[in-house]
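Hey team,

Filing this mostly as a record. A colleague (T.K.) asked me to run one chain through the structure pipeline before their review meeting, and I want the input and output archived in the tracker in case anyone asks later how it was produced. No errors, nothing strange. Just documentation.

Input sequence:
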Amino acid sequence: MGKMKALVWQGPYKMKLTEVEKPKPRAGELLIKTKSVGVCGSDLEIYKGGFAHSVPPLILGHEACGVVEEVTEGVENIQVGERVAVDPGIFCGKCEFCRKGSYWQCDHRDILGMQKHNGAYAEYFVMPHLSCYSIPADMDWDEAALIDILADPLHAMNMMPLQIGETVAVFGPGPGGICFVQLAKTAGAAMVILIGTREERLALGRKLGADITININKKDVIDEIMRITHQRGVDVGIEASGSTQALPNTLSVTRKQGRVMVFGIYSENASLDMQDMHRRELTIFGSSGCPWSMPTAINLIANKKIEVKPMITHRVNLEGLEALFNDGIIEHRKEGYFKGVLLI
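Output structure:
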């Protein structure tokens, strides 16, 4: 199959651009020439050694898009030369959850570039064809790299549909949180409050639809939201930061019989008031992955209903991506870093 360039994670704080064997697709898989990959916050956690299930050496990169270079036996409805984005989940198709259609809860689920399967920080990658979705010919590759970061919040929103006119609080103005803001407004929320610590991110949230922003370094978030909602609380609280302090705050600002979405990824357990959850009859949702939401995410971006380009601060090649990691630009948010995209 020959050689290709790839950025290989070799252990905590070790990312190296090198030559590796070009992957060979098996039956039912596609060989995809990488065109763009979003840099996810989970990639940084893997780079730092924070994910026990990610074992080096490993090629990271799961928010992937590219052009199909080779199809194999069993592939249907996808042709060589087709532009595709991928749902990074890899599923067995045989367990109880796969067989009943809940494939994202597969007992043997792996994730491209995170668990066992090399990802797309390389010139080529392979992916099961059932996880690949066609993208329009006129969609820019940097936009396409953010399909996955929209599809995940979209799945979460579909789990707890908004009623027109409801109020929403979003904790965490990262890419996921900014997508939640736009989705909530698109779904008819009367008021969306975005909470965070970085003024530049809160400003972007206002530009993309947040009605009110709160910097928790300047105001008490619980007091402020209760004041804004006349002591009622919001209908829906969304925790998208992964902060163990933000999660109990999300519950506190959500009204009686309200809904709370736990979307962030946590490095440690949060302390929650279980009696308060019981007394106020809160409904708690968890969300994982982007099942059934990729086509809708593609359509929302293609039809300019959701804006993703304003989130991109860094567009780099493989050499530049190596520097983003190893020079601490992502970890320490140097150069105004918010969202990076690898373009090949």
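Quick notes for T.K.: Residues 172 and 241 are 4 Å apart (CA to CA). The domain at 3-146+312-343 is CATH 3.90.180.10 (Quinone Oxidoreductase; Chain A, domain 1).
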